[in-house]
C-alpha cells in the first residue's frame, strides 16, 4: 500500500461483508487451508461468533437450519479436501429445501495450486451440482466482492453458494476502498397480484365442488388465518404436506393431516375421494409416483413460483400469486354456507382417527412406544417451542402425535431427508432463539450419525432437550422392506447404544442440554397407505390380524362415514409412492 492509504486484510474484509449481511455466527472446523480466515474471525470475534462443531456435516446442517428458522442466510465452512466434502449432506439439504446457505471452502495457496499438493484438488466440479453459485477466488482484492456476490446469489436463488478460498489470499492487504457490501441494497421481490379473471374462475369452481379439499404446503406458511377462514366459510376440509404441519392448529376439527407418505389416515382417504383439490404453495414430491390426484376431477393451483405451476399435476386453473393475497380475495368473494355431508363425514373421520391416536398415546401397559413419549413431550412443551426433527419413523410419529400451533416452529430435512439433522438443527435453534424451548427429536439411527455434536451443545451452553427414540433399528427403512422386499430384513437392525451413558438427566435443564434416552418398542406405526380394514377386499381373519397388530379395534374406514352421511364412496385409493 502507498503511504497514507488505509488498508485492511482481505480476510477481515470478507468477514465484514458477512456482518453487513446480518450474519452473527457461522460453523466449521479449521484447517491449514482455512487458517487465514480463522485469523480474520478472531479479529472480528466481538461482532461475529465462530461455532466450533465436531463434524463439518453438522455445521452445514446447522447453517441450513438457521436459514429455515429465520430466513437469513446460514454460513458454514470446511478446509480443503475432506473438510469441504464433509459439508455436502448439509448443503444438499439446503438446496433441496430452497434455503440460502453460503459455504466457504479452503484451498491450497495460489503458489501451490495445480501442483498436486497436499489436499489440493479441483474443487469446483465437486460443488457444481449443489451450488447455484460456485467459484474459486483468484485475488485478495476481489475476494470481498466474491463473498458479497455469493450471498446475493444465495438469496436470489434460495439456494447454496460455494466459494473456494486459496489460503494465502485472506492474509493479504487490500485498500479499504477496494471493498463494500451490497446488503443495504437488497430487496425481496414484490409479491405478484393474482389475475382477477382467473381468480374468479377458480373461486366459482371451488364453490361448485361437491367434495373439495384444500391441500397446502410450506409456501402457505403466512396464510394460515386465510386458509382457516376459507375452510370454515365453504366447509372444506384441510390437508397439508408434513412440513406445513402447524400452519393451521393440529386441533382444528377439519384438519386431516398429510397424505400418502408420512401420512395421517383421514388425509389419505379424503384425497382418494375428493373431486376438487385446491393446491396452495405446495410442491408435494410424491404426487406423480403415487398418482395422488388420479381421482381428482378439478385441480386448482396457487403458487408464487411459476416453475411450480402444473408441475405435480395438470391444472385446470393455475394462478401465479402469493397465497395470502389470493386467499384474501377469495374469502372476500364467498359467503358462508352450511355444513355438507362431505364436511361432516371428514370431521367424523378425523375424530375417530384422533381417538385412535389418543388411545395409543395414553396407554399405561405394555412396552413403551413412541406415541407415549410424544405425549410426554406435548405435556412439557411450551406454547412457542421449536422442534428439530430427524429423518425416519420420528417424522411419521411426530406428524401424528406432536401437537403444534402456528406459535411453534418445526423443521426437518424435508426433501433430501438426510438422517442426522436433529442435533444440528437444535444447535441452530438455540443460537437463533436462546429464550425459546428447543427439542431435538431423533431415532437412534439418525442420532448416532451426529451424536458427537452433543458436545457442541454443552460447549456453548445450549440447553436443548434431546429426546432419542431407541429401538435398535432404522424403523422407516425396515417398514419399507416389509412392503417391498422378498427376503428377511437386511441391514436395518443394529446393536444398542446406551445413550443414557452419553448424557443423563432427571429434569428439564435450564442452562445446559439434556438427553433423554427413550427405549421404545420396534412396533411399526399404522401404515395408512396399506389399510386392511375393508371387508370387501380382505377376509375377516386378515382384518382381525391387522387390527390386533396395530391396536386398531375401534378404527373405522372413511367409507363408513361417507355412507353414514348419505354419500356413496368411490373405489379410489392412493398408491404408496415408495421406491
From TrEMBL:
- EC code(s) of this entry: 1.2.3.3
Q: Which PROSITE patterns match?
A: TPP_ENZYMES (PS00187)
The organism's place on the tree of life at top rank: Bacteria
Which residues belong to any copy of the Thiamine pyrophosphate enzyme TPP-binding domain? 390-509
Q: Which UniProt keywords apply?
A: Pyruvate, Thiamine pyrophosphate
User: Domain Thiamine pyrophosphate enzyme N-terminal TPP-binding: where?
Assistant: 9-123
Q: What class of enzyme is it?
A: oxidoreductase
Query: Cross-referenced SUPFAM superfamilies, in alphabetical order?
Result: DHS-like NAD/FAD-binding domain, Thiamin diphosphate-binding fold (THDP-binding)
Q: Which Gene3D superfamilies match?
A: 1.10.10.940, 3.40.50.970, TPP-binding domain (3.40.50.1220)
Q: Which InterPro entries match?
A: DHS-like_NAD/FAD-binding_dom (IPR029035), POXB-like (IPR047211), Pyruvate_oxidase (IPR014092), THDP-binding (IPR029061), Thiamin_PyroP_enz_cen_dom (IPR012000), Thiamin_PyroP_enz_TPP-bd_dom (IPR012001), TPP-bd_CS (IPR000399), TPP_enzyme_TPP-bd (IPR011766)
User: Which Pfam families does the record associate with it?
Assistant: TPP_enzyme_C, TPP_enzyme_M, TPP_enzyme_N
Write out the GO MF terms.
magnesium ion binding; pyruvate oxidase activity; thiamine pyrophosphate binding
What sequence ranges are listed for the domain Thiamine pyrophosphate enzyme central? 201-330
What the record says about family reads:
Belongs to the TPP enzyme family.
**What protein name is recorded for this chain?**
Pyruvate oxidase
What organism does the record attribute this protein to? Lentilactobacillus parafarraginis F0439
Q: Read off the lineage from the record.
A: Bacteria, Bacillati, Bacillota, Bacilli, Lactobacillales
Amino acid at each position: 500500500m502507498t503511504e497514507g492509504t488505509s488498508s485492511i486484510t482481505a480476510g477481515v474484509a470478507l468477514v465484514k461483508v458477512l456482518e453487513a449481511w446480518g450474519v452473527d455466527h457461522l460453523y466449521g472446523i479449521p484447517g491449514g487451508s482455512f487458517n487465514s480466515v480463522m485469523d480474520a474471525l478472531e479479529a472480528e470475534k466481538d461482532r461475529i461468533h465462530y461455532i466450533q462443531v465436531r463434524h463439518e456435516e453438522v455445521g452445514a446442517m446447522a447453517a441450513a437450519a438457521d436459514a429455515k428458522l429465520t430466513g437469513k442466510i446460514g454460513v458454514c465452512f470446511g478446509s480443503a479436501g475432506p473438510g469441504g466434502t464433509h459439508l455436502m449432506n448439509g448443503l444438499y439439504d439446503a438446496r433441496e429445501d430452497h434455503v440460502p446457505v453460503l459455504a466457504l471452502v479452503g484451498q491450497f495457496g495460489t503458489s501451490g495450486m495445480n501442483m498436486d499438493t497436499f489436499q489440493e484438488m479441483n474443487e469446483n466440479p465437486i460443488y457444481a451440482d449443489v451450488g447455484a453459485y460456485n467459484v474459486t477466488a483468484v485475488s485478495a482484492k476481489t475476494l470481498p466482492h466474491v463473498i458479497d456476490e455469493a450471498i446475493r446469489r444465495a438469496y436470489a436463488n434460495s439456494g447454496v453458494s460455494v466459494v473456494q478460498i486459496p489460503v494465502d489470499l485472506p492474509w493479504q492487504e487490500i485498500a479499504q476502498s477496494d471493498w463494500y457490501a451490497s446488503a443495504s441494497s437488497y430487496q425481496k421481490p414484490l409479491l405478484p397480484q393474482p389475475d382477477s379473471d382467473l381468480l374468479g374462475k377458480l373461486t366459482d369452481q371451488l364453490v361448485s365442488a361437491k367434495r373439495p379439499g384444500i391441500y397446502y404446503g410450506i409456501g402457505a406458511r403466512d396464510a394460515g388465518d386465510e386458509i382457516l377462514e376459507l375452510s370454515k366459510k365453504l366447509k372444506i376440509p384441510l390437508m397439508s404436506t408434513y412440513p406445513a404441519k402447524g400452519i393451521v392448529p393440529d386441533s382444528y376439527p377439519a384438519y386431516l393431516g398429510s397424505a400418502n407418505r408420512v401420512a395421517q389416515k383421514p388425509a389419505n382417504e379424503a384425497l382418494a375421494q375428493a373431486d376438487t383439490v385446491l393446491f396452495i404453495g405446495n410442491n408435494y414430491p410424491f404426487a406423480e409416483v403415487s398418482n395422488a390426484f388420479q381421482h381428482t376431477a378439478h385441480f386448482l393451483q396457487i403458487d408464487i413460483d411459476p416453475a411450480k405451476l402444473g408441475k405435480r399435476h395438470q391444472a385446470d386453473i393455475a394462478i401465479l400469486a402469493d397465497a395470502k393475497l389470493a386467499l384474501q380475495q377469495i374469502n372476500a368473494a364467498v359467503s358462508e354456507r352450511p355444513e355438507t355431508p362431505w364436511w361432516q363425514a371428514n370431521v367424523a373421520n378425523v375424530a375417530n382417527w384422533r381417538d385412535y391416536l389418543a388411545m395409543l398415546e395414553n396407554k399405561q401397559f405394555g412396552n413403551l412406544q413412541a406415541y407415549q413419549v410424544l405425549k410426554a413431550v406435548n405435556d412439557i412443551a411450551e406454547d412457542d417451542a421449536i422442534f428439530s426433527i430427524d429423518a425416519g419413523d420420528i417424522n411419521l410419529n411426530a406428524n401424528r402425535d406432536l401437537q403444534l400451533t402456528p406459535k411453534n416452529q418445526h423443521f426437518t430435512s424435508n426433501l433430501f431427508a438426510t438422517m442426522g439433522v436433529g442435533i444440528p438443527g437444535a444447535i441452530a435453534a438455540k443460537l437463533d432463539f436462546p429464550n425459546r424451548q428447543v427439542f431435538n427429536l431423533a431415532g437412534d439411527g439418525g442420532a448416532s450419525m451426529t451424536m458427537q455434536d452433543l458436545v457442541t451443545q454443552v460447549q456453548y451452553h445450549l440447553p436443548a432437550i434431546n429426546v432419542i427414540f431407541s429401538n435398535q433399528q432404522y424403523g422407516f427403512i425396515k417398514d419399507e422392506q416389509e412392503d417391498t422386499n422378498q427376503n428377511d430384513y437386511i441391514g436395518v437392525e443394529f446393536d444398542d447404544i446406551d445413550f443414557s451413558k452419553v448424557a443423563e438427566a432427571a429434569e428439564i435443564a435450564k442452562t445446559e442440554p439434556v438427553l433423554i434416552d427413550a427405549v421404545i418398542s420396534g412396533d411399526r406405526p399404522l401404515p395408512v397407505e396399506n389399510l386392511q380394514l375393508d371387508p370387501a377386499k380382505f377376509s375377516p381373519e386378515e382384518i382381525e390380524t391387522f387390527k390386533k397388530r396395530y391396536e386398531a379395534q375401534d378404527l373405522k374406514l372413511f367409507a363408513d362415514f361417507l355412507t353414514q352421511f348419505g354419500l356413496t364412496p368411490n373405489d379410489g385409493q392412493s398408491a404408496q409412492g415408495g421406491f
